[in-house]
Amino acid sequence: MRNNDDFNVSIEGHVKIFEYASADDFKYRVSGNTLLDGKNAVDKENASILVARGITHRPNGSIFYMCFGNGGATIDPLGNVILNPPNVTGSADLYNETYFEAVDDSQGSPQGNYMDVRHINGSLVSYADIVCVIGKNEPFSQLPIDTVGVVNLNVEPFSFNEIGLKTADNLLITHITFTPVLKDAQRIIEIVYTLQISID
Questions:
Q1: Which is it for the CA torsion 188, 86, 193, 50, positive or negative?
Q2: Which residue of 50, 106, 121, 144 is surrounded by the most CB atoms within 10 Å?
Q3: How far is CA 152 from the centre of its chain?
Q4: Closest CA to 18 of 190, 192, 194
Q5: pTM of the model
Q6: How many CB atoms lie within 10 A of CB 37?
Q7: Cα(187)–Cα(19) distance, rounded to whole angstroms?
Q8: Is the model's pLDDT at 172 over the cut of 70?
Q9: Are residues 8 and 134 in contact, defined by beta-carbon separation less than 8 angstroms?
Q10: Does residue 3 lie in a domain region?
Q11: What is the extent of the structural domain holding 146?
């Protein structure tokens, strides 16, 4: 029998990835192409650590990084995409992390990356929105000119098929795998990662 003071906390995540062909399209949010609209998995053990750190105002008590990798899916000999299950137990991490960006705008994240909280008064649900923008010529491998000033004629699209949210000390909180997303150097990608926190 539950005590009246007992309650359950649940965290559910939803990820949307949008692609824009130009800076103006992105600025005015027009002609965007939705590349992904799906739910993620939550590492419950790590999430409990995050909540406890946040309540007690301890270090690393918030989301800090959005991380990207290319180990979330494989392609079989017939061309079928096979998704690997999200890593959300034990010493969880992305399968193969290749890129990350800071998203905590209170700690100097890149322009366009930020976090926000939404809540409807009287409800038992709040939302944390974590937004990350991968701009033109990002990641650095997509720069048209390399670090010594030589024009790079072999710029490859940035491919990723997994995303995770982490604390500053690299504790993985969420993970999602999906069909590979390709980003060329002239495109802008926006990831809107929403965590729904409910108490009942």
A1: negative
A2: 50
A3: 28
A4: 190
A5: 0.90
A6: 12
A7: 7
A8: yes
A9: no
A10: no
A11: 11-199
The answer to whether residue 99 sits within a structural domain is: yes
Amino acid at 48: S
pLDDT digits (tens, 9 = 90+) for 38-91: 999 999 999 999 999 999 999 999 999 999 999 999 989 998 999 999 999 988
Residue keyed to tokens 């180990």: 71
Rounded CA separation 93/168 (Å): 14
DSSP structure string for 114-134? EEEEEE-TT-SEEEEEEEEEE
Backbone angles phi, psi at 3, to 5 degrees: -75, 150
Percent of the chain at pLDDT > 70 equals 90
Count: domains in the chain: 1
What is the spatial distance between Cα 50 and Cα 163, in angstroms, rounded to a whole number? 18
Let me know how long the chain is: 200
Which is nearest to 29 in space by CA: 16, 37, 19?
19
Amino acid at 90: G
